[in-house]
Each structure stands twice: as C-alpha cells, then as structure tokens.
Design brief:
Blueprint (H helix, E strand, L loop, with lengths): L1 H6 L1 H20 L8 H22 L4 H19 L6 H14 L2 H4 L8 H13 L4 E5 L5 H6 L5 E6 L2 H14 L3 E4 L12 E4 L6 H11 L5 E5 L10 E4 L7 E6 L10
Parallel strand pairs: 1-2, 1-4, 2-3, 4-5
Antiparallel strand pairs: 5-7, 6-7
Bound molecules: S-adenosylmethionine (SAM).
Length: 262
Amino acid sequence: MLSLFRKTPILGALLAQVIALPVVAAVTGPLSTSVERLPLIVIALVLQGALAALLCALFRLPRWWLLIAFLFPLAMGSAMLLGNLPAWPFGIAFLILALIFSNTTRGRVPLYLTNAETASVLKDLMRDRNAKSMLDLGCGLGGVVRALDGEGRQARGVENAPAVYLAARLLSVIAGKGEIRRGDLWKTDVSDADMVYAFLSPTPMPALWQKLSTEMKPGSLFVSNSFAVPGVDPDEIWELSDSRKTRLFLYPIGKAVEQTPA
Ligand SMILES: C[S@@+](CC[C@H](N)C(=O)[O-])C[C@H]1O[C@@H](n2cnc3c(N)ncnc32)[C@H](O)[C@@H]1O
C-alpha cells in the first residue's frame, strides 16, 4: 500500500480524506445542539484537514501533501459557504490545470523550466562536441529547443501535456526555431540524436537510463539536468554558477560507465 502511495500520492491523499470524514462527523455531530452552525462548520473543516494531514504523514506522503490535505477541506468549505459563486470559473480553472498537469500524477514529473544560463551552457556543450542534433525529452514550453536550434544545429522536443505542448508548438512556430512534437517520451525514437537532454525528476531516471543506454547511438551524449541516474557514474558533473546552482550530469553513450555499488 505504501509503495502505491509513493508512486501515486493522490490516492493516499484521497484515502486520508475519506477515512477522516466519518471520524469528524462522529466527533462534531453531537456538538450540533450546543454549538452554532458556522463555528461548528469551521471546527469540522479544521478537524477534517488536521486528521487527513496526520493520515498523509502516516502514509509517508511528501510534506507538501500534508499541507494540501489540511487546506483542501477549508478551501472546499469556504467555496461552498460563499454560496452564490458562479461555477464556470472553477470549471475553466480545473480544465486548464488538467491540460497542464494531467500527466504529473502518472509520470511524477511536474513542469518547471530550464533557465537561460543553463540553455546557453547546453549550446556551448553542443558546439564543443560538434553535436548537430538534440532532443529534449519532456520539453515543457520548448525554451531549450528554441535556444539550441540554429547555426547548423537541429533541436527537437517531445511533450505530452496537451496545453504545454500547444504553447510550445505555437512559440516555436512563431520563432521559426525547433520542432515540437506531441508524444510520450517513453515511445520516442532517440536513435538519431547526438545529444538527448532531460530535466525530469528522480522517479523516472532508472527506466530512462535503461531506454537511452540501449537506444541512443554510440558516441552520443545524454545530459540530465539536476537528477543523476542512480547507480551509474556520470562522466562529468557540471555545476553552473546560476542562482539555483544547476548541476548537469553528462553520460556518454557507448563508453563503459562504472556502476556504483548499491
Ligand atoms: C521539468 S519539465 C522540463 C521542461 C523542459 N525540458 C525544460 O527543461 O525547460 C518536464 C516536462 O516533461 C513533461 N513530461 C513528463 N512526462 C512526460 C512524458 N512521459 N512524455 C513527454 N513529456 C513528459 C512534463 O509535462 C513537463 O513539461
């Protein structure tokens, strides 16, 4: 069960709310004759959030899920108490968030973007290695693709979140730089890229290395922003001087890489 929650924390968070609900109802029910309606609702919402957060802690969910578990009932309750709010802004907000983040619960890779300093270092890296083609797996808004495309280099990106893909595609068409495709990075052909770049999360790194080390061509290079491949020594680690002290892990393909003992 805990490993399921580690993979899909939203399930643990939902279960925590479901378990907390009858407990809170049992505790606050008898108070309904002695406490006024509004304070009672507030007490119930705070209890619901606190209990759900406690359960999330027991389920060993990351800390930010505890905060979400606590605030969720209060946010729901406030929205209901405010009564006559129109429903459509919530519907549109939900739709936009779903189009941007729908893949996050499955893939455990949220959207955050490579900064301009890092993109510039990646461009120098391609120049130094005479790399002509690059592929950004999970390209977000396509900033890296556009920054690296041109001067004889071809840059491509693949992105599966619908709204993010559309924005990336549009920006690249307007800029006339790079090629953005909608698709799943796991099904993407990486065999002709001189350099593959990824800025994902710790979760997919072992499986990603499995894919890249078997499918990329010998002599090519895999660069991971911030997340190392567990158990595999990178050839080089570049620590940049940007504000977030970005670290780039460089893995040449086809060169014997040392496996770090587990
Ligand atoms: C941390 S962002 C990095 C964006 C971009 N590479 C950059 O560095 O600016 C990761 C991106 O990967 C996308 N992503 C996650 N899983 C994916 C998958 N299976 N296939 C394609 N894209 C994916 C996410 O939607 C998100 O836009």
